[in-house]
Amino acid sequence: MQPATQDFFTQLYKKRSPKLRIIHRLDLTAIKEENEVLNEMEEKDQHENHEFTTEEKSFNCSQIKKTSSRKRVKKAIGARSCFTCFQCGKLFTQKGSLNRHMRIHTGEKLYTQCGKSFDQHRNFEVHMKVHTGERPFTCQQCGKHFNQKTNLTRHMRIHTGEKPYTCLQIHNQGNLNIHMKIHTEENPFTCQQCGKSFNRKGNLKYHMRIHTGENPSTSQQCGVSFTQKGILSMHMRIHTGEKPYTCPQCGKGFHQHRNLKLHMKVHSGERPFTCQQCGKHFNQKVNLKYHMRVHTGENHFTCHQCGVSFTQKAVLNKHMRNHTREKPYTCLQCGKHFNQKVNLKYHMRVHTGERPFTCPQCGKHFSQKTNLTRHMRIHTGEKPYTCLQCGKSFYQHVNLKVHMKIHNREKPYSCRQCGKSFAQQGNLNVHMKIHTEENPFILHNVGCRQTW
């Protein structure tokens, strides 16, 4: 029973006679016991099937546990009404609970605000905090705010170091030995062609297909081949549009479970991977790995047209669109083209008017989180970008880049008529008005013809 419902009944039976109160308390207790039995049944149904042997016969748990569990539930419910889902067999004491549950099977989503839909009103209420910017739960150690208590709880583990989730697969010595290789970094299986090592023989087997060119699993729609059938199954979701993993907080869907796990760190604010050189935090180990190339100067991917190097191939691919002028992402409302999908996403907010990021101090709204972050520096006075030559600080990195041209005596903007050079495009624009005889600043006064 939901806490709000229980509070309602509590207030109700306080107004009744003492005898009715006792009866209602007993009824609430019975319903609570019934829910506990239902939860116990659900937990047991989720365990893997396994066999056990008696002196007479061998039984399979999956064949008997559901039947016996439901008999216990019906016995616990007694004479009260019982509502059963005909698709999955789950039991409910209230018809309203069954109706809500059925939306999982039908895909019906009643609550809509910004285009995202939800099958339950409480999920809709949680999502609305994204638009309102409400974050009532505050971390007492670092002052960070969260829109849900669960996110604060997860975030607190960063400070406490608590890791409550233990791998349940380590139930025999063989699995324990494999798991321990993660801690010892032992990789006894080595590829003879490239020298890469693996902690399991099966992983080496899959890796060898890269060298042999063997791709037994091929997509029938696009022809792309994969070394493993499981990877092909995940790839097919791109064609089918299936996103079975949904964020319970914002409703965003994902093709893979690991992408959902990474996305959840956005809500919890968890960034467990820290750079030992500059202290910057990251939510993924791979992002820390790419970041370390900033310190080491390692750039694997180089543009063959302009010579600029990048730490990631994906960034190089995006950069190449500057040379090819390719803009594959098109706005269906105004026809404007973009070279990156994220830029199209931000552009769409111009049409929808969506500004989900709100300044908690002045209430100003922004369409992008980065814009809010820059804006917050006005209130905090933070100037994180400092000139190493004169010590002057700036709110934004672009301002520091402009400032550095003073020290470097760099003046890339030249006047085509007189050859005079400028450090900024804006200064060149002002200068050009001398040649065009444009005087926008005129003092409109009788007898005065002075211009500026």
Automatic annotation (TrEMBL):
One CC-aspect GO term: nucleoplasm
Membrane spanning stretches: none
PROSITE patterns named among the record's database cross-references: ZINC_FINGER_C2H2_1, ZINC_FINGER_C2H2_2
Pfam family, one: zf-H2C2_2
GO molecular function per UniProt: DNA-binding transcription repressor activity, RNA polymerase II-specific; identical protein binding; RNA polymerase II cis-regulatory region sequence-specific DNA binding; zinc ion binding
Role played: May be involved in transcriptional regulation.
Keyword Transcription regulation among record annotations: yes
Keywords from the UniProt entry: DNA-binding, Metal-binding, Nucleus, Repeat, Transcription, Transcription regulation, Zinc, Zinc-finger
Similarity field: Belongs to the krueppel C2H2-type zinc-finger protein family.
Gene Ontology biological process terms in this record: regulation of cytokine production; regulation of immune system process
Keyword Transcription regulation included in the entry's annotation: yes
Coiled-coil region: none
SMART domains, per the entry: ZnF_C2H2
Domain of life per record: Eukaryota
Protein name, per record: C2H2-type domain-containing protein
InterPro entries on file: Znf_C2H2_sf (IPR036236), Znf_C2H2_type (IPR013087)
Location of this chain's protein in the cell: Nucleus
C2H2-type domain segment(s): 83-110, 112-136, 137-164, 189-216, 217-244, 245-272, 273-300, 301-328, 329-356, 357-384, 385-412, 413-440
